Structures are given as structure tokens and as C-alpha cells.
Amino acid sequence: MTQERPEHLNRSQIIIQGSFYTPEKFVELAGRWIKEFIHDSSYIFLDSSCGYGAFLQLHDLFNENRFIGNDIDEHAVSIAATVYPDISFFCQNALTQVSRDAFGISDNDPLIVVGNPPYNDTTSQSGQKIKRGNDIKIDNDIKSRDLGISFLNSYDKLKADYACILHPLSYLIKKANFKSASKFFNNYQIEKIIVFPSSEFANTSKTVSFPVVMALYRRHEGNGVTFDKVKNIVFNTTDGCSFSINCWDYVGDYIRKYPGNIRYDQEILFYTLRDVNALKRSRTFITERIANAIDVDPKLLAYYCYIDCFKKYANAPYYLGNFDIPFIKEKFSSISESVTKIAKHNHPEVFGSNDAPTDAEIESVIKYINKVTSLSL
Ligand SMILES: C[S@@+](CC[C@H](N)C(=O)[O-])C[C@H]1O[C@@H](n2cnc3c(N)ncnc32)[C@H](O)[C@@H]1O
Asked: Which atom of ligand 1 is nearest to the CA of 48?
């Protein structure tokens, strides 16, 4: 068993390198999945960001196959090399001059990539102070603002036959991410997938966790997964829930989400809308015209008031963390007046003083929000 925490790194180094090592139970599950597809000792297993080598334990299960480990972190590689003396290791940046040749793999070798690449969205707000900028060299054809997406694209560049990997669910469900990873998704179909919370990794926040998937992808050149197909995928979580993007409507589809040039007679400002986890940290109604301010269309005020109430009352499961704010459109009219009353009362700095909502109004909104957040298949 390899350690699940990089003992040689401090907290900020762990974040910069994305060195959150994979718990053993996921490697075991990966082994069971791969066994269903690969029975051939000619397959080479490559973990191009292996850390201490959690995924290289699969060598015990596939002991006739050749395994290759690589990591940019010299110290991690030296520890992995001690644990796995029979495996060949490289210590190089896996995102530059990406080629099979760089790992001693020939074009004809059947190849499976395994592992848990670093995720490091250099533009995201959380932990921004210690996140690395663009100081690491990445080939232009696989480049993305998120290291993990660049890794996915690198697996496509290596023309891996399979990839059994961990990555944030947001790569699949957020259109912008999906597009950045299109080199990969265009050429790979999902054979197996499971969702779990990021809090499963040692040293991560237990309070705000985000959904991560482990998936087994199989190469189908030019016939991969499309965003429309993703909308219909039934995602199962490790704790027995099932959901799909189509379970919910999203308020963001009905209102302006980002700042624009349209102004209204009555000026009401709202903070730029992001996902459920970002809403926990961000403001809603604001009084200053800052760069992130959206002008609220007064006709659509109830939707913004709903978001304000969602922030206040929702106890959303972690797997909703990277979704836009969900709601049930057809039942919204039943609470639109109540959410407006609640939000107006809670923001006198924006709306002046207003009557307090009744307990029944608050209860009906909480009931609606609980229904939204507990929807599953
Ligand atoms: C999330 S950890 C996973 C380690 C291991 N695969 C596991 O599952 O336990 C990501 C690893 O990626 C490595 N890494 C970060 N950037 C890299 C790069 N450009 N090339 C190779 N490895 C990199 C880090 O040093 C870290 O060990």
C-alpha cells in the first residue's frame, strides 16, 4: 500500500502540484473495471502523473503487463521507484513534447493510461493565492486553463486505447470545460463512471467538497462522447444516489448570468452567477456597480430572489456543487412571490424596508428548495 499523503510536500506545494493522492479503494475498483476489458499482457499501463504510485499497485493484478510511472516531482518518483522496483520510471513534465516515444512506448503498443492527474484551474477563485499561474510548459495543442484538462488532452495525443482516470465532474457537466477537453472527449466513450466527493482525498476541505469522477474511457476515434449524450448519463455516486443533468432546470438558463451593457430604469445589481459551490462564497444582491455586477431585469426579479433564498436555505449535496443553480420551472410560480418577499426583506440596503415574510411563506420556500436538492433518479 502506498501513502495517500505526500509527506515530502507542504500544504501550498500540494496545492500547486495538485498532489492529492488516490485512496486505495478507488485503485481497487479501477482494477476490477479494467479486468473486464483487458485480458492481454501486451497492454502497457502508463501513469504519467503517478505521485507515490497509488495506481501502480495495479501491477499486482496485471503482473504480466509492462508498467510505466512518471511524475514531474523528483522526490515522489524516487519514493515510487523504491516501492515498485520492477517498474520503469521517468521524471518529466508530461504536458510538454507529449509523445509515446518520450516514455519508450512504440506506436503499435496497446496502451492504457491510469491515474489521477492534477486539477488546477488557474482562474478559479478558491485557493487562487497559492495556485500556479501559467509557469509550466504545456504543448499548445493540449493547452487549457486547467492542468487536468490538459492531461486529458495529452491522453488523446498519446492515442491511449483506454484511460482509467479520476477528474472533476465539472469537466463533463460544464460546457466550457467540456469544450476545452474536446480533443479527448471527441475520441473517447465512457465505459464506467462513478461520482464521489473530493473530501475523499486526504488534506482536502471537508466543508466545501466538489464532485470527482473515476471513469474508464475507451478510444473510439471521431466517435466519442458528445455534450448531448452527457446530459442523459445517469451518474451513480459512491453513496448510492443517482442523478443526471436533466434532473433539473437551471435558473441561469432564464436570466442574465454575466455583466452586460443593458441598463434598466430601476437599478438592481446582482453578483455574477456561478455554480452552487461558488454561490456559497459569493454575494447575491449588491449595491456597488463592480466589474462583476449584473443588471437585474426587474421583470425577472423573482429568479434572482430565488437564488438569494437558495444561498440562504439550501443544503445541497456535494454532487450538485458544480451545477448552475437548480430549480423546478413548472412549480416555480408557487413560490415566486414568497422568494421575492423574503429576499426584499433580507436586503433593505437594496430594496428599502419591506414587510417580513410569514412563517408559512418561508416554510413553502424551504420545502421547494429541499425538494429541488433531494431530486434524484
Ligand atoms: C493528484 S496527484 C496524483 C498522484 C497519483 N497518480 C495518485 O493517484 O495518487 C497528481 C500528481 O501530478 C503530478 N504533476 C503535476 N504536474 C505534472 C506534470 N506537468 N507532469 C507530470 N506530473 C505532474 C504531481 O506532482 C502529483 O504527484
From this structure: 21
Query: How many percent of the chain have pLDDT more than 70?
Result: 94
Is residue 15 predicted with pLDDT exceeding 80?
no
> At 219, is the secondary structure helix, strand, or coil?
strand
Instruction: Supply the DSSP string of 285-309, one letter for each residue.
Output: EESS--TTEEEP-GGGHHHHHHHHH
With beta carbons less than 8 A apart as the criterion, state whether 305 and 347 touch: no
E strands of the chain, at which residues? 44-47, 66-70, 88-90, 111-115, 162-168, 188-197, 211-219, 235-236, 242-243, 249-250, 269-271, 285-286, 293-295, 326-327
Pocket of ligand 1 (CB under 6 A): 17-22, 47-51, 54-55, 71-73, 76, 93-95, 115-118, 136
- pLDDT tens track for 172-183: 999 999 999 999
- Over 90: is that where the pLDDT of 129 sits? no
Rounded Cα distance between 142 and 184, Å, is 9
- How many other CB atoms are found less than 10 A from the CB of residue 3? 14
Residue 245 Cα to ligand 1 midpoint, Å, equals 29
Note the Cα 71 to chain centre separation in Å. 22
Cα diameter, the chain: 74
CA of 81 to the centre of ligand 1 (A): 15
Specify the pLDDT at position 206: 66
* d(CA 147, ligand 1 centre) in Å: 10
How do the residues of the chain divide into helix, strand and coil, expressed in percent and rounded to 5?
Answer: 40, 15, 45
Residues 6+ apart with CB under 8 A from 377: 234, 242, 243, 244, 247
Stretch (H or E) spanning 252 = none
Centroid of ligand 1 to alpha carbon of 284 (angstroms): 36
The ligand 1 atom at the shortest distance from the C-alpha of residue 95 is: 19
pTM of the entire structure? 0.92
pLDDT in tens, 86-128: 999 999 999 999 999 999 999 999 999 999 999 875 444 444 4
- State the Cα–Cα distance between residues 262 and 226, nearest whole angstrom: 34
Q: Which of 237, 13, 224 is nearest to 118 (CA)?
A: 13
- Predicted pLDDT at 124: 46
Beta partners for 213? 167, 195
State which ligand 1 atom lies nearest to the alpha carbon of 20.
1
